[in-house]
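Exercise 3.2. Students should predict the tertiary structure of the chain below and write it as structure tokens, then compare their answer with the key that follows.

Predict this chain's 3D structure.
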Amino acid sequence: MMPAFRLMSAVSAVALSAGLVVSGTMVAQLATVAPAVAAVVNRIEVQGNRRVDADTIRQQLGIRPGQNFTQADVNEAVKRLFDSGLFADVSIRQVGSALVVQVDEYAIVNQVLFQGNSKIKDVNLAQAIQLQPRRAYSAQLMESDAEAIREAYRRIGRDDAMVQGRVQELSDGRVNVIFDIQEGDRTKIASVNFVGNSAFSDRRLRDVVSTKPSNVLSFLLRNDIYDENRLRADEEALRRFYYDRGYADFRVISSSAELIDNKYTINFTVEEGQRYTFGDVSIESTIPGIDVSGLQSALETREGAVYSAKNVEATIVALTEELAGSGYAFAEVTPRGNRDFESRTISVVYSIDQGPRAYVERIEIRGNNRTRDYVIRREFDVSEGDAFNQVLIQRAKRRLERLQFFEVVNIATVPGSQPDQVILVVDVVEKPTGEFSIGAGYTTGESASGGDGFSLEGSITERNFLGRGQFIRLSAAGGRDSRDYTFSFTEPYFLGRRISAGFDIFRNSRNYSNAAARDIYERETTGATVRFGLPITEALSTQLAYHYTQERYSYGDGAEDCPGPIPACPISPIIQDAIDDGKWVKSSVSGTITYNTLDNFQVPRDGIYATLTTEVAGLGGDAQFVKVSGRASYYHTLSEELDLVGLVSAGGGHIVAFGDDPLRVFDHFQSNDRIIRGFKYNGIGPFDPDTGDHLGGTTYLHASAEAQFPMPILPESLGIRGAVFADAGTLYGSDIDVAAGTDMEWRASVGASLIWLSPFGPLRIDYAEPVVKEASDRIQHWNFGISTRF
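Answer key:
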């Protein structure tokens, strides 16, 4: 920062004619009292410089020996030297035939050191400040950096952190800048309260906002930190929540935070207003040639439905895209609402007008220290030179937010170089995208690996690898009878197009035991998948993949303990034949269609998630079959007041062999908890009547109904919910001649669950009681797994 100029001696018109004197204070005042008298000097002397070369300073002056110069030229020379950021003070005076430039150089930062910090690492603090090694030191910058460090501590809930900067003098004009930090205690949030709400309970609204009361898991979740920006975001989340549920007059009257004994109490005062439904919905246009009747199919709002701002926005986007596709690039869609307070309806007219012809001059991106510019630019459907479209800009904003790379995304427009040009300014605040997770589970009864016991899983995930937007994941898991290793990589924009491409490499090993709990055989599976994904619409996407898998089988230690030869062991000869083959190779291609309208992928409350997959094996290898499987889940909020969510899901699959050989026993479908809970893995369906071993089936069907609700007494900030469910399923059909129980026999179970949105991902524990079963079935009451059952 340029210090105030100072007048070094009395100045008069006479004195100025003899010798010019200008220094670092009040150049502007000097210029007002001094006449523009020209002067000439023979040489320029530089004094006080230690590191900056004298010739470099002379070049910046703009004044040359032997040439006339005025007071204004001296003023500009002083400003140029200050603007270089190298000097703490500058003065220029004329002494006889010489122009003397006196400079006081800033010290150079040798190191920036942090002392007393443990909650924030040095590297993160260094990114938050401006002072850096080998740059000029400034006391103002040091104070500014101290405040930046205090702000960094406020963002992690340490509002009383104290930061003091000091300088350690070194030789040759160098200094070490040291920040002494006292981190203080972590603030907490005692409660989050709402005033004025009646349609929704405090508990339901606390689930909407991101600021949560402190609990025993807050040290992991970090959602109990007061931040003013987060409070503003919570206000917007509340508005969106109410607007999407019919409360078009909703207002946040105020939000406040009160700090007592290092604990915040957060209060939101709201005014809900009346709940509205849609009245008449129509489209009108002032642009000749637009067929309004042909746009009716794009409407996402229907008369009689509960008013939803989200549906209005979806209609605007759909209409804008239809118009753009028909050649109306500058058409603007504006909704006009007409409230009827007596009937509590809102009639909506979507008005189509010719918008201003504006073009995108350029897109400026700021704040992305790690993420590459092109990763942000590719989320826009507009680029430099395209017609400006506010709807497409808002869509890009939502896409950027869904990436989960940024805490904040703001897009603004500023005038361009021409009246019909605009500049898009994209401001982002990045957040960590790497994750390390570790989890544990326990399975009772026979599982996929054939035994009871604990299992552990750990993974390292990076969603924005090297700032390129790429996804990479390395995971390992193991239990008493299992080992799993997986490496996955995904490029979301393959060849610069909105096509995802990736691969998975995996290796799994399993030890299988028989009814006598002996380890009879082992399976080792090594394989890889190459996949490509293509979005069709915002909700619909498809994926094509190639799979190569090699399976190796061998007898386990338990087989040696069986009395007599191997066939005498209580294991099905059908399974023995497959084991004796030793190695099996499967080469296949698959296609998957996915439809996803879920409002939240981790804790869905409304929407549909459906998939349909067809796999064809036979492109080389040993397997030859066609397999079709699908599943659909529908979530719907049954009661907003009680936060009661209903889930209905159904699915099925069928596999058929082609060629000369029937299906192997290991290629059949095997039952699991996704088909029906309350039964062991591969615990229902066709079986060997001699040994009781289940052999899998060629067809399965299943259906499930579930109700999810908040757990009473427990604070909602823990993220624990309950559920009750009823399952029905069947597994039947077989290509194995000796198999019994191949007819379609339905099983059913009922049960209850605990669902936990843990720091390691959504988890659930199920207890199921079979109510319809067969004598050959194997029961398993408890199950531990992921909570979202898509």
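Discussion points: Residues 1-36, 445-451, 563-568 have pLDDT under 50 and may be disordered. Residues 309-325 form the longest helix (17 residues).
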